Amino acid sequence: MIRSAAHVRSELDLAEGLEYLAGSVRASLHMAWAYDRDFPFFARSTGPHSKLGLDNPDTLYFNAYLRDDAEYVVTGRRGTTADLSFQVLNGDYTPSSSPDSLNAFDDRAFDIAPDGTYELRFGPEDPRRKGDPNYVTLGEGAAMLLVREVFSDWADERPGEIRIHRADRLGAAPDPPTARREAKRFDVAGKMLVSRIRTFLAFPEWHYLRLPVNTMTEPRLTPGGLTTQYSSAGHFDLGPDEALVVTVPRSDAPYQGFQLGSLWYVSLDYVNHQTSLTADQAVPDPDGMIRMVVAQRDPGLANWIELTGHDRGFLQIRWQRLTRALTAADGPRAEVVRFADLPARLPFHDRQRVTRSQWAERVAARQTSTARRMLG
Questions:
Q1: Residue 17 CB: number of other CB atoms within 10 A?
Q2: What superkingdom does the record give (predicted)?
Q3: Are both 250 and 352 inside the same structural domain?
Q4: Which of 87, 90, 246, 317 could link 232 by a cystine bridge, Cβ 3.0 to 4.6 Å?
Q5: Can you tell me whether residue 65 is helix, strand or coil?
Q6: What is the mean predicted confidence (pLDDT) over 223-233?
């Protein structure tokens, strides 16, 4: 499937596909052995080395498996990140469909103690819990709890803590492993791997590739039930002497982030290259706009988004923790320009200038911040 993918045209395409496959193998094994609805734990199936579904460089993803007839307790401590959200799904992604979102909310929806600690309970409908903001009724078919912790300022924000247990299993222990059960998990992991690859080879066609190239959509509610997130999507195809200038207002939303993705529908290397920017990382212009330059060559500008050898790929902007609906005026404009014309086409070009040493400092900050975040 990897070697015969329709978009593979170069050595880089294939090499990244094999890297993507390796990460998918790791993630599939990890998720198959994390499947325990009686003794659940939060697993990280997505990260810098196991990417999936145009993963957000600014987000830590956690998920745990559930059953809709049991009660689960989630305890934690709120970090200082821009957003913390919860979503209950009734299944997983397949090549032909996405799971339904049964419930989605962020930490503004429940009570948090002054010291940042909280306790949430997820369980069957219980009239005694009606009106309790810290009790979430699990809809029929509830199968997975997905938690997203989103960073806007990588340097200063710190992750929180989170744990989960089934309410009637704390203090107990699962049955010892059996050869039959472990063999079944290998079978599940294999099926999960094949489905994962097929799904996200098909996924871009649904949401991106039918759009006009080198454009981005107006802000729209993100598919999948994230009620306080809007997104703008697009795909690019650029020549070596071209740049795509993406201009977007600096939002009042707590989180606003832009990223590139490869045709494998995963993020580009965001640790060692500036392939993404949040509103806090970007340098806004005096008119309140953020102008990002997507280009192969280094323009010597703070808001350069590195293509890292890619001439095609995906564009994504997310806004999260919103308190109002976004309109076209909040969204991006994308324009292809000749690389040599950038100084004339950018109204505040000289204010964006950075030296090579300043650029190296920006990359070093990404590397150290990501390393610290992954240990959080």
A1: 21
A2: Bacteria
A3: yes
A4: 317
A5: strand
A6: 82
